[in-house]
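re: the backbone from monday

yeah here it is again, tokenized this time
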């Protein structure tokens, strides 16, 4: 079902609906569906409810979540729903270069299911000219802002330094083959530089590829195996603090990466696969994770 918007609704084999981009020919949450994937990757794995509780006990500051690739807002809304019992202040900062998937998804809210109770909030977010709003979410207040624009470019611009520093980053771009600009080493280096070293931040994402993991390590993150999602038997979690990575990649992984035909990060927005360069290998070996 397409509405001429560039997106269509697809019914997955598991019976739930998801959004599909006609231009990219990719389904947003292709196997287990939007809610199950978001719960596995961004709620349970990050122990986000426990983290928010611990944060709210110690501090009245906002708990900051970056949502990279807002898309149809399944990740953002699943996380908000999971957190709503915790009295706290939430700042949700979403990034996308288009609001259209959200507009499309809202017009199919009943089939998608996950908007349940958030239709008004999502509708306001689409309609307000600055795509920003403050609203009550159960026990908490949420400030939600969408930054529309090219994410890799935004990270290089000085206003990015004014963005609130995240505690968690939900990283959900299209696949590297379709969307290489969102998976380059310069992008993750810029992202890492924007973090506050004194604020532990976790970045889970759905890929477990060696290229991605090398990229995250060379950008400065600690990197570990992430939970299965039902679609993938393993995903990836990165963080600027070692304690947020419970299953860090080890020397066995490092040895496999050295021998892999597909491990060198993409240095520019062109998809290609190559073994590790000598320079990358040297830098990887020096990473504190492997000391
Ligand atoms: C897989 S979809 C995200 C799905 C979304 N997280 C959800 O829960 O519905 C990937 C998103 O990344 C966005 N995107 C792709 N390239 C981008 C770029 N260069 N800058 C900003 N957003 C981008 C796309 O517009 C798309 O909405």
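seq for it, each position gets an aa:
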């Amino acid at each position: 079902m397409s509405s001429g918007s560039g997106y269509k609704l697809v019914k997955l084999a598991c019976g739930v609906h998801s959004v599909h981009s006609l231009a990219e020919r990719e389904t947003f949450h292709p196997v287990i569906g939007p809610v199950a994937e978001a719960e596995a990757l961004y709620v349970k794995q990050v122990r986000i409810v426990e983290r928010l509780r611990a944060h709210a006990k110690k501090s009245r500051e906002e708990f900051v979540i970056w949502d990279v690739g807002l898309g149809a807002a399944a990740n953002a809304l699943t996380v908000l729903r999971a957190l709503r019992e915790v009295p706290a202040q939430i700042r949700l900062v979403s990034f996308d270069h288009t609001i259209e998937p959200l507009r499309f998804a809202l017009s199919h809210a009943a089939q998608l299911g996950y908007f349940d109770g958030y239709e008004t909030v999502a509708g306001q977010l689409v309609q307000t000219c600055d795509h920003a709003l403050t609203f009550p979410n159960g026990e908490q207040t949420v400030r939600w802002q969408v930054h529309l624009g090219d994410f890799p470019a935004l990270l290089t611009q000085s206003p990015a330094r004014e963005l609130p520093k995240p505690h968690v980053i939900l990283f959900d771009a299209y696949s590297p083959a379709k969307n290489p600009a969102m998976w380059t080493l310069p992008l993750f280096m810029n992202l890492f530089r924007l973090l506050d070293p004194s604020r532990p931040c976790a970045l889970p994402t759905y890929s477990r590829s060696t290229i991605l993991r090398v990229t995250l390590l060379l950008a400065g993150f600690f990197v570990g195996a992430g939970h299965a999602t039902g679609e993938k038997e393993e995903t990836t979690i990165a963080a600027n603090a070692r304690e947020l990575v419970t299953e860090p990649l080890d020397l066995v992984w490092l040895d496999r990466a050295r021998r892999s035909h597909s491990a060198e990060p993409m240095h520019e927005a062109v998809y290609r696969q190559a073994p590790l360069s000598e320079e990358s290998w040297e830098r990887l070996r020096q990473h504190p994770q492997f000391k």
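The longest helix spans residues 34-44. The chain has one domain: 32-290.
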